[in-house]
Amino acid sequence: MTQSNLLLLTVLGAMIGCMGLLIFFIDYFLRRRKRRLTGHMDELEGHDFELFCAELLEKQGFLDVEVTRGSGDFGIDILAEKDGITYAIQCKRYNSPVGVETILQTYGGQAYYERMVGVVMTNQYFTAPATQAANKLRILLWDRGYLDAMMEENV
Length: 155
Known about the structure:
Layout: H1 3-43, H2 46-59, E1 63-67, E2 78-82, E3 85-92, H3 100-112, E4 117-122, H4 128-137, E5 139-142, H5 144-153
Parallel strand pairs: 3-4, 4-5
Antiparallel strand pairs: 1-2, 2-3
C-alpha cells in the first residue's frame, strides 16, 4: 500500500468517525428534548394537564377548543372541532393505566354534549377492558404514544 493510499484511508476514517460522533450528539440532544417535553406532562396537576391538552389540540388544527368547567362537566374536559367533526374529550393525567370507568364516563359525556366523537387523552396507556369498551362504544383512545407523536409534530 502506498503512502498516499494510507493517508487517504486515514482521512476517510477520521471523517467517518467525526460523522458518527455528530450523529450521536444530534440523536442524544433530540432524545433529551423529547424526554423533557414528555416528562413535563407527567408533572402537571389535573387542570394544568387539561390546559396542556387544549394547547396541543390547537397546535394540531382543532378549532373552538374550550376547556369545560371543573365540576358538573359530565366527565368531559375539552370540547373542540376539526374538519367539521365535533369532539368531547376527557383528559387523564395518571400514574397508572386508565380503566374502563373513564371510557364509560366519556361515552356519557359525549352524548350529553351531543358531540360526534368521544376521546380520552392520557399521559399513560389503557387497560385491556378499557380498550375493549372503547372499541365497542367507538371512543378514541389517545395514549402517551399518541400524545408524544402530536408533540413531535409541533416541535
